[in-house]
Amino acid sequence: MKHNTRRHKTSVGYKIVLGAIYMFILAPQIIIVLVSVNAGQYLTFPPQGFSIKWFVEFAHSEVFLTTMRRSFILAACATTVSVALGIISAYSVVRFGGRFRKQLRLFMLSPRLFPAVITGVALLIFYYRVIGWGTTSYWGLLFAHVLVSFPYVFLAVSSQLYNFDLALEEAARTLGANKLRTLVKVTLPLNKAGIISGAVFAFVVSYTELPMTMLLAGRNLTTLPMQLYDYIRWSFDPTGAAVGIVNIFLALVAVWITEKLVGLETLRW
Amino acid sequence: MLGLKKKDRLVEQILASRRVVFRCFCRYALILPVAVFIVVFLVIPYANMVVTSLRPFLSAGRIGHGLTLANYQKALADPYYLKVLGTTVLCGLITTATCLLLGYPIAHHLAQRETKHKGILYAIVLSPLLVGAVVRCYGWMLLLADNGLINSFLQYIGLGKAKLMYNFFGVLVGLVHIYLPFMVLSLIGPIQSVDPTWRSAARTLGASGKRVFWRITFPLSIPGIISGSVLVFLLTVSSYIGPILLGGYSVMVTPMLIVQTILSGVNYPLGAALSFVLVGCIAIAVILIFRATDKLLKGVDIYEA
Asked: Do both B40 and B175 map to the same domain?
């Protein structure tokens, strides 16, 4: 009995510590939400009241709208290519990897294992001195985004394929479907969840990518994170918070979709 | 007769091996587009950067021919660059240790089977990862600035202002926050895979909860601690958005120096050399971590069984 009460006490302290750490993780996101609906120029204590004027400001800001549109299009293109590459690589590594499976997996994840800044520098020098693209090429930026986002599709799809019941494919083959038909009609639809959650992750990664983009995108290709980065370095204007809300919303959608489709617990690296 | 048979067998073998090669080719044809993509946009750029780092620098944007080690000499001998490198490594070490300290309880909590609302808690840990570094740093700026929420609260209760941002402390807060999810994700798996029967066996033998944790769960999760620490260290020493936004150029780290050298100085050879010095530092740190933990693991007799 005595032993039990002691255990209970320590668990309360543990819970407080845990709560504090979870609060630490949530703090900046909460503050962004609070600042965006606060009436004052600064969020002070006590707050100055509720207002949506920063969202109105954001809706009238030509720069933010243009860069946001550009970021959305770039992320959509990068996701499309990433999904194609991710499915191909996951399928071939899981099915045909053989004894090189581990090495191939590492190879596919290698774009994420190198520091983004240094990869950015390497690509910048490569674009300038070897290909001659410079920082004005949309293709250069797009491929850089694909490079860092397709490993997420690979991760999601391959983790599903590992647990895929091969008997289903064999059944389709026995019923007369050829390899391609089996892939399109059976394997891919049954691994839809992995593909979708990988795609959502790839989209968000591309949409928020900054360290490489800053090196590779010239003035004509400013993305939303770049614009926001420039903006908040010189002013604490809450319009930035209203823009950040979109990011928080996207992150929540991505997490929600992943949780619904494959479960967040499958995310490992 | 015998010779002919041998020849036949040889021909057969060659044909068979060709068939194998063809089958292999068909299989790897699928992987080819991805492999080409990674080679063109990752392997070749890095190889090109190695060459660039060995070229002499003429003037902004211009690179000479021939090979030289002058860039590495500058990157490794210049006291300012070394000081920056020292700050970077120190920053990485403190951030990694803090992430471990804060991440372990969270990972331990999420790894427990009886934890409630796991989905929401996972979402709390993971969603910041997807919000993007800029927005998260902005959140911290709004909290830590001179007229931010914390300082205005401190003034409200009459404690005056504290300098929380544009210094080393601000950078550390930002970095710990950005890389904490990576640590948690690396730790959950290894903690979860600790066989629960070992814990219950220890409890049956009379060990207290604390003792079970320190003698069973913790030592067995060391592989996760290593991989998480390596990952967080690698990410921290190569980050520059957090340090710029929350340090405001008062804390200079090597990635900032690299970007400055490349974008402002247009000195590609030196930028490339600095990048590889940073990569070298990461490699040394990773090797040291593995060496240290190897020794540590030898002391844990569970691993010998």
From this structure: no
Least CA distance to A81: which residue of chain B? B34
Calpha distance B172→B88 (Å, rounded)? 11
Pick from B98, B118, B131, B185 the residue to mutate for testing the A interface (most A CBs within 10 Å).
B131
- CB distance A123–B45 less than 8 Å? yes
Classify burial at B29, counting beta carbons within 10 Å of its beta carbon; exposed 0-12, middle 13-18, buried 19 or more. Answer: exposed
Q: How far is the C-alpha of B95 from the C-alpha of B246, rounded, in Å?
A: 14
* ipTM (interface pTM): 0.85
Domain range for residue B273? 80-304
A-B C-beta contacts closer than 8 Å:
256
Report residue B59 as tokens: 């003037």
* Nearest-10 crossing angle of helices B168-192, B118-131: 140
CA distance B197 to chain A (A): 20
**Cross-chain Cβ contact A143/B239 below 8 Å:** no
The reply to whether B14 and B149 lie within a common domain is: no
Residues B179 and B273 in one domain: yes
Instruction: List alpha helices for B205-267, DSSP H.
Output: 209-212, 218-220, 222-237, 241-247, 254-263
Give CA separation, A6 vs A12, A100, A169, B210, B216, in Å.
Answer: 10, 52, 56, 12, 21
DSSP structural state of residue B56: P
pTM given for the model: 0.84
CATH for B215: 1.10.3720.10
Nearest to B57 by CA among B277, B272, B280: B272
Confirm whether B159 is domain-assigned. Answer: yes
Name the E strands within B89-242: none
In order of their start, the domains of chain A are 61-266 (1.10.3720.10)
B22-75 tens-digit pLDDT:
666 666 777 888 999 999 999 999 999 999 999 888 877 778 788 888 889 888
* A150 and A80 Cβ atoms separated by less than 8 Å: no
For residues B182 and B278, membership in a common domain is answered with yes
Distance CA A205, CA A230 (A): 20
Q: Which residues of A touch B185 (CB under 8 A)?
A: 267-269
Is pLDDT at B162 greater than 60 in this prediction?
yes
Statement to judge: residues B38 and B125 lie in one domain: no
Answer whether residue B288 is part of any domain: yes
Residue B211 lies in a domain: yes
CA–CA distance, B101 with B112 (Å, rounded to integer) = 18
